[in-house]
Amino acid sequence: GIRLAPKEKLEVPVLFMPAEMKIYKAVVIINVMRENGENWPYKVTAGSNTDLKRNVIVAENGETQGIVWIYPINGTPEAPQQKSVVIRCQARQRVEQRVELLLIGVIMPGATAQPDAGNSAEVDMDESSNAPEVTDGSSATLEFLYELQYQSDEIRSQLESLVGMQLVEKEWDTESRIVTLVFNVVFAPSKPMRYEATVVIQCTAGGLWKFPLVFIATEPEVDDVINIEAVGLNKESIVGFKLTSQTR
Predict the structure, then answer these.
(1) Which structural domains are found in the chain, ordered by start?
(2) Is the per-residue pLDDT at 135 higher than 70?
(3) Which residue of 22, 32, 128, 179 has the smallest Cβ count within 10 Å?
(4) CA geometry: angle at 146 spanning 141 and 150, to 5°?
(5) What is the per-residue pLDDT across 172-184, written as a single tens digit (0 to 9) for each?
(6) Which three-class secondary structure string do you get for 204-225?
(7) Measured between alpha carbons, how far is residue 55 from residues 31, 41, 63, 124 in Å?
(8) Is residue 102 predicted with pLDDT exceeding 60?
(9) Range list of H helices, 135-211
């Protein structure tokens, strides 16, 4: 019953308030007809475009009675952002740190029907993203995708080659519906820095979790001590040493 004048715009508000960490799907259907109830003279025939035939309502005489727009909506719940995990290392050193990430509210296999993987909500993942399976020994499994995202391309270029992340352990608690993913994070900075990144984890059954990581590289150790002995007052003493660049 909404009247729309020529060239007028119509905004359709959509509210998403998920109750569980699972994929939600809906469809917004908009049907437009003439206010006076008359049909458009255009007739849909066998030779008409297939997309056009699918989006029109045809009257008995073959004229167009209405036009339909269909907008699929996929809702992916996102957990509140967690506290930052700090990875600290001295420059020109290497550190390995065990990081445990808790995924709260995961829908366990058997609790609800899982959608097909092809219809699941998408998230921007690199080709290098891993897809580990969490299983309790039964045929039902939970599959996760994880990726380390950076705030900008500049930070990615500085940090990507210095950080490694690998899933080493996973376990779940069916009563609390908490899945624990344990990662081994390697950080090998070449110079002092402080950068932030985000671990984004998505479950194919639904749900998105984000965990901030802060990478801090402190000042490196002193390379060497240079001693210069004076040959006399008001006379120059010279000592030479070599510097080698680690990059081009």
Answers:
(1) 24-75 (no CATH), 77-107+142-220 (2.60.40.2310)
(2) no
(3) 128
(4) 170
(5) 888 888 899 999 9
(6) CCCCEEEEEEEEEEECCCCCCC
(7) 9, 16, 13, 31
(8) yes
(9) 153-159
Answer whether 149's CB lies under 8 Å from 197's CB: yes
3-state secondary structure of 28: strand
Dist. CA 32–CA 12, nearest whole Å = 14
Token pair, residue 237, equals: 């003493």
Q: Which two tokens stand for residue 94?
A: 């290497």
Residues in the chain: 248
153's CB contacts (< 8 A; 6+ apart) are none
- Specify the pLDDT at position 107: 80
Q: How many Å apart are CA 5 and CA 87, to the nearest integer?
A: 58
| 245, two tokens | 């660049």
Q: DSSP state, 139? A: S
